[in-house]
């Protein structure tokens, strides 16, 4: 720890169990004092160490400036902001924040760093709010680190009649994701953007979701963009796929839309992993290319698929393999980033076994369905690799169908997190993505996939939070957890309240890790830590609403303003 | 059946199991043909029989005209509106609708009729869309009936590029609520407008909800306006109650707000039953009048209340009785309508037993808590009666606490509908209001409180519908069912998707009754009737979204456009 932090420590009253700072996720190291500080009406952010700063860094600073002005979250106490009038009056005035890229650091844009190889990212930053001078400081080794620090800085301030203040200066933060930077940080949102419900989520909805994701430092959007019901993705090599396979021309993500979404995400520190789910869930391809799809919309659907309508690519057909190769190549070529998924969930054997063309192809080539599946997976994984990307695949392809995959494949464990061990035993990296989505969305089971020992007081035992389990012990490196948004259960009408603030719970699980900055376990059998998280999650929720995201309330406001008084044991 | 209907029948192809009309709830009698008809660009509605029409009738016609122009629901088939281009081309042009108040009917406003005694309402109407002439006709015995008919008329039309058309002319409808008009119609929405979550629902949210309620002919808003956490109702006699008991001045329903909401509701055929929940759930009164509240915010709350914070009126105090009398009187005097509720759920005995003032009052007056509770209920029911209103009360007050109530009391059976029989055995009227609200909102159990025989095909077995059980056989007259919206589980952020289209399911249960217009049972063990309801409910949902209500989707659009193909047995 740097000498100046040690000096700062000497004059700090460290509030161990009750941070009154509305930060989510809570930083790895957080020291707070008891002095008030406030932003000058002319408060500015100055960038150092970047003579020609990347445009997205400048834009990030501008967004922070703007939010510092427009955010109006009052402290969630009785009387709200007016309770702090005296403190605000005597608060030290901060005139600026100096944001510095540490000397010797590479000068890259946030987007470049976000889409770089996952083991090359440095998101660390150091942030200091003094109580004895007028300038706050932010230092990082990367543009991405500066972004993370700015995001935290925005959350330090409450509003009262336009004045932005904190009661806890000096504040010192040393922060970075809990997992080693050599391992990809594991918090991601899954957006099934091909909403089965009502066409696709409008682009504006996705951008708003990306904004909110960046506010809680989520770093990956897993974009399940095509599905059985529609093909809403414009593909350069096959424009007919969306022309005929989407619900309507208005419900298509054009190449421009995709570029816009990916750029928007990358500039906010979010990498996009696009999934082209295959060979199952591909019925919508049959609208343009019926020759490539077996059992398309065959009845009864429940015999041939896990959801209607049935339909799978004809994996034994050389023509279909060629089609898949071109499809993946066309999409991969247009995407930045180093990750791409071929999906692979829920393939159905009777679909192929009863498909005359597939049966004929298998016989002609003297291969089995398993052989064909292997060949298909090798083909699409090969294309993904050719484009310099790490391939993702769904766990059932590996575990149920025993398909050999490339060594650096990332397996999405989506059925039950108990599968993680089996995947890890094959020395494959994995992502946890709890599949009990119905409960996630509607029954709010915070204990799903958690051990009994972890049940005690997960975030205070509130029932509307999702907490994903950090990857458990296994041989391969953990790749992490996703909060899936299954859009079968959602539509643009309820996107925000379904997702927020629930998604934020997982963000802290994976950013902050197992230990709170005061050294106590984040999930300890200690009511205080749970209450503490709940209070901050309330603040996050109110801040999200303030910023236009329709996050649902977690408790009656009476309880919000009186932390702990609504606990069942109080 | 009138002669002209019999004549119409002769040339109709009656489509028994597949109405392609987007009407919800489906009318009691519905005859449809197979000819296309469309509205003229200059289509108008002419009012007959009302030389000086009430302003709210004129306004209702104007709203219908406006919605006929702005509604843009295309038929939910493959190709949508474009599938009907040929039919639209040859469609008969309708130039006007003649709306007639039957000679001899009283000339009253919709609001007057809506707030009249519940056994005096006539909501019947007759609506004809010809296929051989240019004028449609609507006839009713009341302004309220005209409103119901206009509401149905709006739903008959699909849009294609601005042209409003039907494929099923001629259409003849004879309609009225399923229950005898001498019995109040039983579909109501419960709005706990004092949202425990985030203050109160903004007035605009309530008005939007009232609009949507009127579109599905729901006739009662049960307004649970005050609760433990806050007192958001401005009361003439005690302005301090909301000044000190609301979350903030912005989170108060002023008298102007209440008048506006009630007027808005009444003009749309919705009567408002306001509930002043008492003597429990009254903690918020203690902010201004601590002398009237026992165990206010006492810890642990779970010992003294069913939800935090604890607090109940001091029922043994003469001063508190006088306060309650004035409170009820002040609120009742400002409300039209013939119904008002004193609530009465979840009173807690230890709260009073450990309250020194209550113990002293009981001893001084030599009465028991039961005596005091009786006196309290008699007092507030007496005030309600004095204002010419029918008193409502919660079932636990009658069943758990055995409190004698006035003979014409309506009992809200909210804990379990199994209590209905016990209430009916006391010859009291009742409202069903299923209390398994968590499941309602999140697990979508359509079978809750239904007998096994009714399970078979409730609205096709969809899982996101609520179906309340029509009042079962009992001695007293049925008073009906409510769809409760428990705002502990909702906030303005998710009001629409939580409520819609779920609430509409109950509207049909109670408007249409047990029999579909084709004579088959609405809940028969016949998949077709379920599918039929689902298709119409999809249409309602799309129409709600079209009109700005964020109703959630019930199925992927692929399934919506292909009725039946996603059924599990297809």
UniProtKB/TrEMBL annotation, chains A, B:
Coiled coil residues, start to end: none
Domain Beta-hexosaminidase eukaryotic type N-terminal: residue ranges: 23-156
Q: Does the keyword Repeat apply?
A: no
The residue ranges of the Glycoside hydrolase family 20 catalytic domain are 201-513
Entry GO MF terms = beta-N-acetylhexosaminidase activity
Active-site positions on this chain = 346
Q: Which reaction does it catalyse?
A: Hydrolysis of terminal non-reducing N-acetyl-D-hexosamine residues in N-acetyl-beta-D-hexosaminides
Gene3D superfamilies reported in the protein's UniProt record: Chitobiase/beta-hexosaminidase domain 2-like, Glycosidases
Pfam families with a match to the protein in the record: Glyco_hydro_20, Glycohydro_20b2
The stretch of residues making up the signal peptide is: none
Output the GO biological process annotations, alphabetical, semicolon-separated.
carbohydrate metabolic process; glycosaminoglycan metabolic process
Print the keywords alphabetically.
Answer: Glycoprotein, Glycosidase, Hydrolase, Signal
PANTHER family (UniProt xref): BETA-HEXOSAMINIDASE, BETA-N-ACETYLHEXOSAMINIDASE
Protein known as: Beta-hexosaminidase
Organism, per UniProt?
Answer: Pycnoporus cinnabarinus
